[in-house]
């Protein structure tokens, strides 16, 4: 296991959330990737964060632990049952219910209802088919200097394989290329976990 993953220790609350995700067959961010989420939330003094893909709350806990004490995490997921678990996990992790706004629904239906320029950080942990729409929405939702993080850009190790022409890999490549070539983002890829495409919205 890479040192970055063993360096990021997880407490029993995170371990429980992770095991619940495993039982449900849900992927979740690795400890190393989670520590990057916490770091970026803390570096930006994030007060308003959007998470697309609640799961059982693993990434949500990492984000909340980096955010300001008065920060609110808006987390979106189509699976109400997963969110019920995450809600309990957040409380067990010591976060008051007022620290989270849990919205059930398709992200592409929910994101248009969120306010322009109101968010400090957006974390996309969605199906690759939604990457383009989510990154487009992030440009509208983030304040100048806000951070976009997209999980899964290693495409399960296929991102650098020219013979990989499946839809998921092609979609990831298109998203990475579009962000890199845009004048509106300052991007970098962080190799922790499944690969995090990170980008700061230019002022």
TrEMBL record:
This is O-methyltransferase. GO terms for molecular function: O-methyltransferase activity; S-adenosylmethionine-dependent methyltransferase activity. It comes from the Bacteria. It holds the Pfam family Methyltransf_3. PANTHER family: O-METHYLTRANSFERASE RV1220C-RELATED, O-METHYLTRANSFERASE-RELATED. The lineage of its organism: Bacteria, Bacillati, Actinomycetota, Actinomycetes, Micromonosporales. Keywords: Methyltransferase, S-adenosyl-L-methionine, Transferase. GO terms for biological process: methylation. Gene3D superfamilies: Vaccinia Virus protein VP39.
């Amino acid at each position: 296991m890479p040192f970055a993953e063993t360096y990021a220790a997880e407490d029993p609350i995170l371990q429980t959330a992770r095991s619940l995700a495993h039982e449900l067959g849900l992927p979740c961010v690795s400890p190393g990737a989670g520590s990057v989420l916490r770091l970026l939330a803390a570096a930006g003094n994030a007060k308003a964060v959007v998470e697309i893909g609640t799961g059982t709350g693993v990434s949500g806990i990492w984000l909340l632990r980096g955010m300001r004490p008065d920060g609110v995490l808006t987390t979106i997921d189509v699976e109400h049952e997963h969110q019920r678990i995450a809600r309990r996990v957040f409380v067990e992790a010591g976060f008051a219910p007022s620290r989270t706004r849990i919205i059930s629904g398709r992200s592409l239906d929910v994101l248009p209802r969120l306010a322009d320029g109101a968010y400090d950080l957006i974390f996309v942990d969605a199906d690759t088919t939604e990457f383009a729409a989510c990154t487009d929405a992030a440009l509208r939702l983030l304040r100048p200097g806000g951070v976009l993080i997209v999980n899964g850009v290693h495409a399960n190790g296929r991102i650098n394989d020219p013979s990989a022409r499946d839809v998921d890999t092609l979609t990831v490549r298109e998203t990475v290329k579009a962000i890199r070539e845009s004048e509106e983002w300052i991007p970098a890829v962080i190799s922790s976990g499944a690969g995090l495409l990170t980008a700061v919205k230019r002022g």
